[in-house]
UniProtKB/TrEMBL annotation:
Residues 19-363 form the AMP-dependent synthetase/ligase domain. It comes from the Bacteria. The chain crosses the membrane at residues 72-95. It comes from Craurococcus roseus. PANTHER family: ACETYL-COA SYNTHETASE, ANTHRANILATE--COA LIGASE. One of its GO terms (molecular function) is ligase activity. The keyword Metal-binding does not apply. Residues 417-495 form the AMP-binding enzyme C-terminal domain. The lineage of its organism: Bacteria, Pseudomonadati, Pseudomonadota, Alphaproteobacteria, Acetobacterales. This is Benzoate-CoA ligase family protein. Keywords: Ligase, Membrane, Transmembrane, Transmembrane helix.
Length: 511
């Protein structure tokens, strides 16, 4: 059980607490262009809070849109909003006018702080928003100038522990993005559950990762987890797998977090870098195929720590600490969370049988004005869209997104299992497996494969891939159709868009 005081401001708990503990001079963020100590970051956040309240008329509960790559200003802006008692609505740099418009409207945004380099689309989106938007930019001197007129030592707003402080939007792989609401205490709860029990961070740790701060995977890894213990966060505006490797070497990073596809590429390139500082390697966002786990282990001697998280839960809720990792399994519920696999009747399914994953914990269950709340939240449990199996030992094994299960001639086939088998073939760079409509079998297994540049795609390779899968897993799961592509469709958070592949497969079948 976690206990927090009834009055709680996350900014005070994460920043002021470090200054009070004597770590004011310790580097909090190291970004591409500047390094800020905890004291400096706190000062900048206090000034931003003063600009919001005194210059822009913010009152507690107002929603403030933030738009930027991962920079020191972006982190300071988050804390400025929290100190002012506002609600952060962070948006990814990749969002375009249409999506920004949805966010402005859904979250009833009244204020925005934005990196000047990304202002154009936000300005455009704001022209027909329902509420007038008070927009201030940094990077061109505007916010900097306003900040300079305010003292850097004001106290944070006296918020309640269960005042909303963050609205996170899901990436919306299949439907309109859902807004999920999080309290001040939730920001601490993810630190005191997942981070504390699985990562066990210390002030000497150096965190680095690729996800944008607007994706809660990134907010946890780049801000909440390091700051809860007074560690250092290295922020990258661009974070390709190679950028990550370079940053680990240069900053002697100890914790790195990114998605499975990036880990796969990093494993292939790890040889050229000194990664001896690394201690914790976190993979989330998509299932971690066992071959990627093995490749990283072979390249570095380190285990990848898989973990399933979700925007609605704020962060990871099933994972395993290093010593308890089972390759191919997501892990066990993080202390503080409970997880269950539900059968079709909504009751807990027997161990070993697949069903829908449900989770309950200190976070979750709160959608922003969404009629889907009743489908996704039942009796205090979040019903995920994922099919899992829990084994006799209690470990959870990911099967597929529930709407991604392939039914072929009466067999249930999980695309990710076929993908993992394909990935161990040396010619495969990336792949995605979905069901394609088929008159005889209902669906057939279809693989979209990005071959390595030096391998000629053709009938011989198709047969080699099929034989490879038949030898690796139950033969009925092999891809009867294989199509070679140059790239796979992905969401802004890097997830494979299987729905798009399914549409391609359906269009192909109609031809
Ligand atoms: C899928 C996984 C298998 C799964 C997230 C860490 O991904 C995050 O949040 P989203 O809201 O998506 C949630 C959905 O993504 N997924 C995530 N991790 C795994 N599937 N194995 C995994 N390890 O379908 C889940 O329902 O974008 C991840 C921390 C914070 C996050 N928001």
């Amino acid at each position: 059980e976690l206990h927090y005081p009834a009055r709680l401001n996350a900014a005070a708990a994460l920043l002021d607490a470090q200054v009070a503990a004597g770590r004011g001079g310790h580097p909090a963020v190291v970004s591409d262009f500047e390094t800020l100590t905890y004291a400096e970051l706190r000062g900048r956040a206090a000034q931003i809070a003063a600009v919001l309240v005194r210059d822009l008329g913010l009152v507690p509960g107002n929603r403030v849109l933030l738009r930027s790559a991962n920079t020191a200003w972006m982190v300071a802006a988050h804390f400025g909003v929290w100190m002012a008692g506002g609600i952060v609505v962070a948006t990814m740099p990749l969002l375009r006018v249409k999506e920004l418009r949805q966010v402005l409207r859904k979250a009833r945004v009244s204020h925005a702080l934005c990196d000047a380099r990304l202002a154009g689309e936000l300005r455009f989106a704001a022209t027909d928003a329902p509420d007038p938007l008070r927009l201030v930019l940094w990077g061109d001197g505007e916010l900097e100038g306003l900040c300079a007129r305010h003292a850097a030592d004001s106290a944070p707003c006296d918020t309640a522990a269960d005042d909303v402080c963050l609205i996170g939007f899901t990436s919306g792989t299949t439907s309109e993005p859902k807004g999920t609401m999080h309290f001040h205490r939730d920001l601490l709860a993810v630190c005191d559950t997942y981070a504390r029990h699985v990562l066990r961070p210390e002030p000497s740790d150096v965190f680095v990762g690729s996800p944008p701060l607007a994706f809660t995977f990134g907010l946890g890894g780049s801000v909440l987890f390091p700051f809860r213990v007074g560690a250092t966060s290295v922020l990258l505006e661009r974070a390709s797998p190679e950028d990550l490797l370079r940053a680990i070497e240069r900053h002697r990073a100890t914790v790195c977090f990114t998605a499975p596809t990036a880990w796969r590429e990093m494993a292939a390139k790890a040889g050229g870098f000194d990664l001896s500082s690394l201690r914790n390697c976190v993979s989330a966002g998509e299932a971690l195929p066992a071959p990627v786990f093995e490749a990283w282990r072979a390249a570095t001697g380190l285990k990848l720590l898989d973990g399933i998280g979700a925007t609605e839960m704020l962060h990871i809720f099933i994972a395993a600490p290093e010593e308890a990792v089972l390759p191919g399994s997501t892990g066990i519920p993080v202390p503080g969370f409970r997880a269950r696999v539900l059968g079709p009747d909504g009751k807990e399914a027997p161990r070993g049988t697949p069903g829908r994953l449900a989770v309950q914990g200190p976070t979750g269950c709160r959608y922003l004005a969404d009629p889907r709340q009743a489908d996704y939240v039942q009796g205090g449990w979040n019903i995920t869209g994922d099919t899992y199996v829990q084994d006799a030992e209690g470990y959870f094994w990911y099967q597929a997104r529930s709407d991604d299960m392939i039914v072929s001639a009466g067999y249930n086939i999980a695309g990710p299992e076929v993908e993992a088998a394909l990935m161990t073939h040396p010619a495969v760079l990336e792949c995605g497996v979905v069901g394609a409509p088929d008159a005889e079998r209902g669906q057939i297994v279809k693989a979209y494969v990005v071959p390595r540049a030096d391998v000629p795609p053709g009938a011989a390779l198709v047969r080699s891939l099929q034989d490879h899968v038949k030898a690796a897993i139950a033969p009925y799961k092999y891809p009867r159709a294989v199509e070679f592509v140059e790239a796979l469709p992905r969401t802004q958070t890097g997830k494979l868009r299987r729905a798009a592949l399914r549409e391609m497969a359906a269009a192909g079948a109609r031809r």
